[in-house]
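Subject: Protein record for review, amino acid sequence with C-alpha coordinates
Why sent: The fold of this protein is of interest and is recorded here as C-alpha coordinates.
Enclosed: The protein record, placed directly beneath this head.
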Amino acid sequence: MIAIIDYDAGNLKSVEKALLYLGEQPLITRDREKILQADKVILPGVGNFGDAMNKIRSYKLEEVIHQVVQKGTPFLGICLGLQLLFERSDEAPGILGLGILKGEILKIPDKEGLKIPHIGWNSLKLQNEGRLFRNVEKEPYVYFVHSYYLKAEEEQIVKAVTEYGTRIHASVEKDNVFACQFHPEKSSQTGLEILKNFAELEG
Protein backbone atom coordinates (compact mmCIF):
# COMPACT_ATOMS: atom_id res chain seq x y z
CA MET A 1 0.00 0.00 0.00
CA ILE A 2 1.21 3.50 -0.87
CA ALA A 3 0.22 6.17 1.66
CA ILE A 4 -0.35 9.69 0.32
CA ILE A 5 0.02 12.11 3.23
CA ASP A 6 -2.97 14.44 3.59
CA TYR A 7 -2.08 17.76 5.21
CA ASP A 8 -4.57 19.94 3.27
CA ALA A 9 -2.03 20.95 0.61
CA GLY A 10 -3.93 19.98 -2.53
CA ASN A 11 -2.80 17.81 -5.42
CA LEU A 12 -3.71 14.55 -3.67
CA LYS A 13 -6.38 13.31 -6.07
CA SER A 14 -4.23 13.56 -9.21
CA VAL A 15 -1.45 11.57 -7.52
CA GLU A 16 -4.00 8.99 -6.35
CA LYS A 17 -5.48 8.75 -9.86
CA ALA A 18 -2.06 8.19 -11.50
CA LEU A 19 -1.22 5.42 -8.99
CA LEU A 20 -4.61 3.72 -9.50
CA TYR A 21 -3.95 3.81 -13.25
CA LEU A 22 -0.68 1.96 -12.59
CA GLY A 23 -2.58 -0.72 -10.63
CA GLU A 24 -1.31 0.41 -7.21
CA GLN A 25 -3.34 0.74 -4.01
CA PRO A 26 -2.94 4.32 -2.81
CA LEU A 27 -4.48 5.56 0.43
CA ILE A 28 -4.90 9.27 1.18
CA THR A 29 -4.48 9.58 4.94
CA ARG A 30 -3.06 11.48 7.89
CA ASP A 31 -3.46 8.49 10.20
CA ARG A 32 -0.11 7.93 11.89
CA GLU A 33 -0.38 4.12 12.07
CA LYS A 34 -1.45 3.74 8.44
CA ILE A 35 1.43 5.95 7.29
CA LEU A 36 3.91 3.91 9.34
CA GLN A 37 2.53 0.61 8.00
CA ALA A 38 2.68 1.68 4.34
CA ASP A 39 5.16 0.07 1.90
CA LYS A 40 5.81 3.49 0.32
CA VAL A 41 4.90 7.04 1.33
CA ILE A 42 4.29 10.12 -0.86
CA LEU A 43 4.25 13.75 0.32
CA PRO A 44 2.63 15.78 -2.48
CA GLY A 45 1.68 19.43 -2.21
CA VAL A 46 1.12 22.80 -3.81
CA GLY A 47 1.01 26.11 -1.96
CA ASN A 48 3.04 28.10 0.53
CA PHE A 49 6.05 26.59 2.36
CA GLY A 50 5.22 28.24 5.71
CA ASP A 51 1.51 27.31 5.66
CA ALA A 52 2.40 23.73 4.72
CA MET A 53 4.94 23.33 7.54
CA ASN A 54 2.44 24.79 10.02
CA LYS A 55 -0.19 22.27 8.90
CA ILE A 56 2.26 19.36 9.05
CA ARG A 57 3.09 20.39 12.61
CA SER A 58 -0.52 21.00 13.65
CA TYR A 59 -1.49 17.51 12.39
CA LYS A 60 1.54 16.10 14.25
CA LEU A 61 2.91 14.63 11.02
CA GLU A 62 6.50 15.88 11.31
CA GLU A 63 7.58 13.12 13.69
CA VAL A 64 5.77 10.46 11.60
CA ILE A 65 7.58 11.60 8.43
CA HIS A 66 10.93 11.38 10.21
CA GLN A 67 10.07 7.90 11.50
CA VAL A 68 9.10 6.69 8.01
CA VAL A 69 12.41 7.95 6.60
CA GLN A 70 14.45 6.50 9.48
CA LYS A 71 12.95 3.04 9.08
CA GLY A 72 13.95 2.98 5.42
CA THR A 73 10.50 3.13 3.78
CA PRO A 74 10.77 4.58 0.24
CA PHE A 75 9.55 8.18 0.52
CA LEU A 76 8.71 10.55 -2.36
CA GLY A 77 8.20 14.32 -2.12
CA ILE A 78 6.43 16.02 -5.05
CA CYS A 79 6.59 19.78 -5.85
CA LEU A 80 6.06 21.54 -2.50
CA GLY A 81 6.68 18.11 -0.97
CA LEU A 82 10.25 18.26 -2.32
CA GLN A 83 10.78 21.73 -0.86
CA LEU A 84 9.53 20.74 2.60
CA LEU A 85 12.19 18.02 2.86
CA PHE A 86 14.89 20.70 3.02
CA GLU A 87 15.95 23.11 5.73
CA ARG A 88 14.51 26.48 4.79
CA SER A 89 12.81 28.52 2.10
CA ASP A 90 12.91 32.15 0.94
CA GLU A 91 9.12 31.88 0.81
CA ALA A 92 8.83 31.63 4.61
CA PRO A 93 11.83 33.16 6.41
CA GLY A 94 12.21 31.84 9.94
CA ILE A 95 10.11 28.70 9.42
CA LEU A 96 12.14 25.51 9.50
CA GLY A 97 11.49 22.78 6.96
CA LEU A 98 11.68 19.07 7.76
CA GLY A 99 15.49 19.16 7.41
CA ILE A 100 15.67 15.58 6.09
CA LEU A 101 17.94 16.74 3.25
CA LYS A 102 20.45 19.58 3.22
CA GLY A 103 19.85 22.62 1.05
CA GLU A 104 17.64 25.65 0.64
CA ILE A 105 14.69 26.79 -1.43
CA LEU A 106 15.28 30.06 -3.30
CA LYS A 107 13.07 32.42 -5.31
CA ILE A 108 13.38 31.96 -9.08
CA PRO A 109 15.19 35.16 -10.18
CA ASP A 110 13.31 37.68 -12.33
CA LYS A 111 14.51 37.57 -15.92
CA GLU A 112 13.14 39.29 -18.97
CA GLY A 113 10.83 37.03 -20.94
CA LEU A 114 10.42 34.50 -18.12
CA LYS A 115 7.12 34.31 -16.28
CA ILE A 116 6.99 33.51 -12.58
CA PRO A 117 5.48 31.22 -11.44
CA HIS A 118 7.13 28.85 -13.86
CA ILE A 119 4.19 26.89 -15.31
CA GLY A 120 4.67 24.42 -18.13
CA TRP A 121 6.83 21.76 -19.70
CA ASN A 122 10.61 21.78 -19.39
CA SER A 123 13.23 19.23 -20.36
CA LEU A 124 15.37 17.56 -17.70
CA LYS A 125 19.04 16.80 -17.88
CA LEU A 126 19.56 13.52 -16.05
CA GLN A 127 22.70 12.88 -14.00
CA ASN A 128 24.07 10.63 -11.24
CA GLU A 129 21.93 7.65 -12.27
CA GLY A 130 18.65 8.23 -10.46
CA ARG A 131 16.57 5.14 -9.76
CA LEU A 132 13.36 7.07 -10.53
CA PHE A 133 14.57 7.61 -14.11
CA ARG A 134 15.15 3.96 -15.05
CA ASN A 135 13.86 3.40 -18.62
CA VAL A 136 13.15 7.13 -19.04
CA GLU A 137 14.50 8.86 -22.15
CA LYS A 138 17.68 10.97 -21.86
CA GLU A 139 16.12 14.46 -21.82
CA PRO A 140 12.47 13.91 -20.87
CA TYR A 141 9.90 16.71 -20.76
CA VAL A 142 8.00 17.09 -17.48
CA TYR A 143 5.42 19.53 -16.09
CA PHE A 144 6.35 22.22 -13.54
CA VAL A 145 4.32 24.71 -11.46
CA HIS A 146 6.52 26.69 -9.03
CA SER A 147 7.98 30.08 -8.08
CA TYR A 148 10.75 28.74 -5.83
CA TYR A 149 13.46 26.22 -6.60
CA LEU A 150 15.85 23.89 -4.83
CA LYS A 151 19.55 24.39 -4.40
CA ALA A 152 20.73 21.16 -2.74
CA GLU A 153 23.92 21.20 -0.69
CA GLU A 154 25.14 17.81 -1.96
CA GLU A 155 25.54 17.71 -5.73
CA GLN A 156 25.67 13.90 -5.79
CA ILE A 157 22.05 13.58 -4.58
CA VAL A 158 20.84 15.64 -7.58
CA LYS A 159 19.52 13.26 -10.27
CA ALA A 160 17.93 15.78 -12.68
CA VAL A 161 18.37 19.48 -13.41
CA THR A 162 16.52 21.98 -15.56
CA GLU A 163 17.11 25.59 -16.61
CA TYR A 164 14.58 28.34 -15.99
CA GLY A 165 16.36 31.63 -15.42
CA THR A 166 18.79 29.65 -13.28
CA ARG A 167 19.96 26.06 -12.76
CA ILE A 168 17.24 24.22 -10.87
CA HIS A 169 17.75 20.98 -9.00
CA ALA A 170 14.63 19.23 -10.31
CA SER A 171 14.96 15.80 -8.70
CA VAL A 172 16.98 14.39 -5.82
CA GLU A 173 17.58 10.96 -4.31
CA LYS A 174 19.35 9.97 -1.13
CA ASP A 175 19.04 6.45 0.27
CA ASN A 176 15.27 5.84 0.57
CA VAL A 177 14.29 9.52 0.06
CA PHE A 178 13.26 10.70 -3.42
CA ALA A 179 11.83 14.03 -4.54
CA CYS A 180 10.72 15.83 -7.72
CA GLN A 181 10.09 19.54 -8.14
CA PHE A 182 7.98 18.75 -11.20
CA HIS A 183 4.64 16.88 -11.14
CA PRO A 184 5.11 13.29 -12.36
CA GLU A 185 1.35 12.74 -12.04
CA LYS A 186 0.81 15.48 -14.66
CA SER A 187 3.79 14.59 -16.86
CA SER A 188 2.14 12.15 -19.26
CA GLN A 189 3.86 8.82 -20.03
CA THR A 190 7.23 9.96 -18.63
CA GLY A 191 5.64 10.84 -15.31
CA LEU A 192 3.84 7.51 -15.11
CA GLU A 193 7.15 5.72 -15.72
CA ILE A 194 8.73 7.70 -12.85
CA LEU A 195 5.84 6.83 -10.49
CA LYS A 196 6.04 3.18 -11.62
CA ASN A 197 9.76 3.13 -10.82
CA PHE A 198 8.99 4.50 -7.35
CA ALA A 199 6.17 1.99 -6.78
CA GLU A 200 8.48 -0.89 -7.75
CA LEU A 201 11.35 0.06 -5.42
CA GLU A 202 12.32 -2.51 -2.84
CA GLY A 203 11.45 -1.32 0.65
